[in-house]
Amino acid sequence: MSPVRSATIVGAGIAGLTAALSLARKGISVRLLEEAPALEEVGAGLQVSPNATRILAGLGLLDALAARWSEPDHILLSSGGTLAPLASVPAGAAARNRWGSPYGVLHRASLQSVLLDAVRREPLCTLTTGRRIETAEDALTESPADVLIGADGVWSPLRRAMPGALPARYSGNVAWRFLVPYGKAPAFLDPRTVTAFLGPKAHLVAYPLAEIDAFNIVAIHAQAEAPASGWLRRGDTAAHLERAAAFAGWHAGLRQLLAEARDPLVWPLFECPDGAWTDGRKTVLIGDAAHAMTPFAAQGAAMAIEDAALLAQRLATGGNLSETLRRFEADRRERVAKVRSRGAFNRFAYHARGPLALGRNLVLSLRRPESLASDLDWLYGYRTPD
Fold first, then answer.
1. Rounded Cα gap, residues 146 and 260, in angstroms
2. Is the model's pTM score more than 0.90?
3. What is the pLDDT of residues 188-208, one digit of tens each?
4. Which of 22, 70, 271, 296 allows an S-S link to 346, with CB 3.0 to 4.6 Å?
5. Which domains does the chain have, with CATH numbers?
């Protein structure tokens, strides 16, 4: 079989845009079909680790991203109860030196904008908005192609229609997202540091968004049931009480930060269990459509970017398409499983209580920053396999 010459991608988020650009750079023509009438990204900040920035640099996007993001000096773990530092992983110049690519933080919309600009400049890419796609047949009738890529997110209609795929499930955790301008931020938030504050059954991450002069705050806590309104809603009085209870006993400064949050968004965290990512013929899922995961390893966007790079590489080599898609799925499933395991470990460690939390703090206090960085070599040092 000759190499793939055309692709239809459903979904123009980070996964779909990266896939479109990666495929076009391999000489494959791409049509992107997006349900929204205009591309408007919800959410706030995003951590982009070296395994993802390496791929984005290969696409020629690093200068555009560096103009918008910041590269924190450290990733710090601190006590949510006392603010005391527990451990630190060097980032900034150390990340470039150790992993060969930067660790950046920026607004999610900024990454999408950089990708979108590059796609629009690419003559082999066409973006069509306002197209609701329910099935593979819908997509290929709208845009016939050699291969169909589902990049339509955690609620992917293409996944629902794929034999052997499994529905998304609630993870048992809720994330609160809001912004705090630098000028109104407490002194314990450092614009040169990503800080994760740890506590019983909850943690809070704060990191700088240089392009808007604000900290992105993500507060995650366990909650037995997902909010009734589903995926996304504005915080109301009842929700505020839920948040306050989850962080009871935390440092007064952090409690005040949460209490004064302006118009927070609540995201019940859903994940996709293992299931089919390809129909074995010409359709394949990537990103959250295939393997949505909780943010405990901060790797959701990075996994989507890795998916896009490897899929483009494999499709450009030719061979039997069904076998190519199955090989892609097998390779990525192994990688994603390892990242999920790291996320599960982080969830256990971050949300530890009582003696487990004391043991965690003791172990962390004995680890040198370089030793902690070495634990991430397999993750941040990843390069797309041949």
1. 52
2. yes
3. 999 999 999 999 999 999 999
4. 296
5. 6-72+101-168+272-350 (3.50.50.60)
